[in-house]
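User: structure tokens for this one?
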Amino acid sequence: MCQPIWAQFGLPTDTVLCPGEDHYISSGFKSISSSTVVSLGDDQFSGIIQIGFPFEFYGTTYNELVISSNNYVTFNTTVAGGGSPWMIAANIPNATNAQPNSIMCPWQDVNPGVGGTVEYGTSGNAPNRIFTISFCEVPMFNCTGDLFTDQILLYEGSHRIETHIRDKPLCVVWNGGAAIHGLQNANGTAADVVPGRNFTDPVWTTSNEGYAFIPNGMNGYSIQPVSYNPSVFNGVNWYDSSGNLFSTGDSLFVNLPQGIVETFTVRSSICGGAIISDTITVYIPDLESAEIQPSCENDPNGIVFIDLFDQNPYRYNCFLVDLNDSIIWASSVQRFQDTAYGIPPGKYAVVVTDTNSCLQIDTVVVGNLGNVIAAAMPVTDIYYDTVTVFQEFFDNSTGAIQHFWTSNGQTSIDINPIFIYDTCGIYPVTLEVFNSNGCSDSIAFDYEVLCFVEIPIIPIDSIEFIVPNVFTPNGDGLNEFFNVSYEGMPDVSKFEGKIFNRFGQLIYSWTDWATKESGWNGTMNGNKVADGTYFYIITAVSSQGENFNRQGSLSLFKGGTN
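Assistant:
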């Protein structure tokens, strides 16, 4: 389940909730379901009040307190039911004029005996309860038309103290408008005061403010301003975007269908009927994905569009996962719409996660446009003369219906084109093929036009090698091997013969010139080669160190016999 969403007063928060899950949205209000009203006259202490949990103040733990009608509380329960001093005559800390062991929020002369409400209550659950003392629209003494409203909050566990003042008017005609906002320890020797709010500071007024007094571990407090966020004593209501009452209570249960955007307003009233509210917009995303373009097998170019409800301002991480649970695509940045390119054909899970760890899964199928594989080679038979070479190339691609050839500045759309080469050298050849759905593949290779120069026979001791230019290894017992022949007995100490195909690939070599069967039998790696033109290089060295070199072409022709 996703984490609860806190809609704190004064801090609206929009969020995304996981679809298909139950969610509880807390109002963030400190809602008090049951409170106790304290009847106080002018300048009077209440009876002893139970806090409900242990609370530490300046290093001492207390379970009880007493409320002063002049807007402070003290942990000195010996004053319960007695009179509460109103005259402020000195700064705190002091043990004579100011009540020791007190929280002053602020201490000033107010008179609940003529109006307003003083009450207390507890919100939350152990071990995180909050005890709240509320002064609601209590008249200032001698300025009874000016009403004062504030709260003192004691936090269980952390022993934090907060004061939230909604209205603090100024009555300068009484006691000079004096007011002290701070804390004082049990013997009046230490105090922590909001800056500018001790007795000798200039008189002050404020509204809608909060301060926190946080224990600093050194028997003192750090003072920090906080947002005005009082406890509520009158229940919590939830309204939908149409203004209809949707639910009541501190938490809202939400289970909405996918693709819904709903704005909820949480509302309560505080002292004097003032309304506090907060608004939260809830998005339940609706994942949709669709194939935009199918894909070729050999060159993946499928496109998948992913949409997570276009009204959603939040961002997500998206993934495509194949049937082997491998991620084949992931979004590069968080967004609420994305497009995946270069996707192979197949079935995929569209997986989406957000910052709340919500997980959504959809399925998309990318169609298959088929396969095409380019393959080509020169045809063995070549037609050439002393000036120009005519080379035919063979297209043995798979699945192709269109063919685009280029070489030596020439182009062709024939399946098996013939290109013309007028000089020796290496020429790039490219072939691009397409299938019926437009899928393509290409291949590129170099074709070498070999120029062979006939070298005159060089005699060795007046003995000549005779090199044939054709042989027919067809199994008829005649002319089955290509090897040199000779007259007499040449003086040869070293011999090597090599056979090459038209691509310059060595396919056979031998060193025994005297045995005809040692020559080439028309095979390569034990397999018969095709009829056509091949090339040889013959080298030999005599016992006197004379060199014999010959190179040229030969024709292999088997005819109709295998």
